[in-house]
Amino acid sequence: MKVLLIDVNCKHSSTGKIVYDLYTEMNNSGNEAAICYGRGPLIKEHNIFKFGLDMETLFHAGMTRLTGLTGYFSIISTLRLINYIERFGPDVVHIHELHAYFVNIGRLMSYLKKKNIKTVWTFHCEFMYTGKCGHAHDCEKWKKECHKCPQLRVYPKSLIFDFTHFMHLKKKHYFEGFNNLTIVTPSEWLANRVRLSFLNNKSVKVVYNGIDCDKVFYPRDTTQLKENLGITDQVVVLSVASSLMSQDKGGDLVIEIAKRLSNKNFRFIMIGVDKPDQINFENIIALSVIKDQMKLAEYYSLSDVTLLLSKKETFSLVAAESIACGTPILGFESGASKEVIGNNGILIEYGGIDEIVEILLDYQHSNLPRISNTSDAQKFTRNEMFNRYLSVYEGELK
After folding, report:
1. Using one digit for the tens of pLDDT, what is the confidence trace for 213-227?
2. Does one domain contain both 249 and 107?
3. Same domain membership, residue 154 and residue 255
4. Is residue 386, in this structure, part of any structural domain at all?
5. How many domains does the chain divide into?
6. CA 203 to chain centre
7. 10 Å Cβ neighbour count for 203?
8. Is 58 in the same domain as 180?
9. 350-358: long-range contacts, CB 8 A cutoff, minimum separation 24
10. Are 144 and 263 part of one and the same domain?
11. Which of 261, 308, 376, 380 could connect to 331 by a Cys-Cys bridge, CB 3.0–4.6 Å?
12. Could you tell me which of 337, 323, 334, 298 has the C-alpha nearest to residue 375?
């Protein structure tokens, strides 16, 4: 079987890692896989093709800000992608994320419909059934028709014009007649959202995102890392996200909690901070994104608790990775967080900073004991993800 995977990234970011893992497992299992990606550094490996042109991506981003339209530019990049699909001749095209200014969505979908290529499309966010939003949060206009977008200046932002009503209708049109299509979501929570949208007549399956629980994410000895960081008997509180200080990931809330506990025996580690040097608090260690997964697993293992303060989670790789390393979660019940975390942590209503502080102060009374049995993470393994996707490709997943 030949499978072509499409994403904005390859090998880095949550979706880029998933795509590369699927590519690796497909090729190791005697099948043939290729990756086409739109942004990031050039990767010179067999059947991996960066079709996105950086200058065209910049133009696309600029036009989105000026016009309010996103997914309508990048014509040359899209033609490069379609030409590669023609040459590779896949049995299945597996799409992941198409936002981020690197592809003309309508042209790609029209091509796939015309050629009747079997398409699997993983929705990692809500972009494809809203006017433009990756996360609709409390807005429910997408259930009927988007208009007067309350997140106009949130990514992918428009400086002036609101074309969300137009783009919502166009997306609905793109999916009409797209019959050789299976939509996949990484959680039941997101699958239920899809079923409330204009895509309620499409086949929707759930495949949890996968991590490497055998060689990477497992409880580790962190004596040396503690010594390097100067950590002794403090309670260590970890926060991780690729853009931790963005509006959706809650980095500002982590800082607020750290301020309130500045005279207590706590040490906060923030991973994914764009400008670590600008966070100057004695009880905070601020770090940029850690690409080395082995090192990241050490930080999970070192920590007593992982904070999850996002506005919405369609899955949460952070939660799965933390649980696999034996570290419980403390955070907000938002989106699919409860589905992933289960009994391996404490979740409260979004925004409850006072409660988070109180729970942390009570930590030493065993409110959040370490996870002694990490078997719950086994449903989020890379092998499980691959096997379920293989069943989707073969049309066998119920």
Report:
1. 999 999 999 999 999
2. no
3. no
4. yes
5. 2
6. 22
7. 14
8. yes
9. 350/311, 353/253, 353/256, 353/257, 353/260, 356/257, 356/307, 356/309, 356/330, 356/331, 357/257, 357/260, 357/261
10. no
11. 308
12. 323
Residue 169 shares a structural domain with residue 255: no
Which helix (DSSP H) or strand (DSSP E) does residue 204 occupy?
A: strand 203-206
For 100: left if phi > 0, alpha if psi spans -120 to 50, otherwise beta; the answer is: left
Using one digit for the tens of pLDDT, what is the confidence trace for 138-189?
899 999 999 999 999 999 999 999 999 999 999 999 999 999 999 999 999 9
**Beta-bridge partner residues of 211:** 381
Helix axes 14-28, 382-393, angle to 10 degrees: 70
Identify how many contiguous H helices and E strands the chain contains and give both numbers.
13, 13
pLDDT digits (tens, 9 = 90+) for 253-309: 999 999 999 988 899 999 999 999 889 899 999 999 998 999 999 999 999 999 999
Q: Classify residue 217: in a domain, yes or no.
A: no
> 19 in a domain, yes or no?
yes
**CATH number of the structural domain spanning residue 95:** 3.40.50.2000
CB atoms within 10 A of CB 311: 17
Q: Are residues 153 and 229 in the same domain?
A: no
pLDDT digits (tens, 9 = 90+) for 72-100: 999 999 999 999 999 999 999 999 999 99
Residue 113 in this model has a pLDDT that exceeds 90: yes
pLDDT(368) > 70: no
Whether residues 172 and 245 fall in one domain: no
The Cα 89–Cα 392 span in angstroms is: 19
The label of the residue with tokens 């809650």 reads: 250
Q: What is the DSSP pairing of strand 181-185 with strand 118-122?
A: parallel
- Give domain status of residue 46, yes or no: yes
Residues 6+ apart with CB under 8 A from 41: none
Mean pLDDT of the chain: 93
* CB-CB neighbours of 348 under 10 Å: 16
Domain with 124, as residue range(s), is: 2-210+381-393
- Contact by Cβ (8 Å): 368, 305: yes
| Same domain (yes/no): 345, 389 | no
C-alpha 96/C-alpha 35 separation (Å) is 11
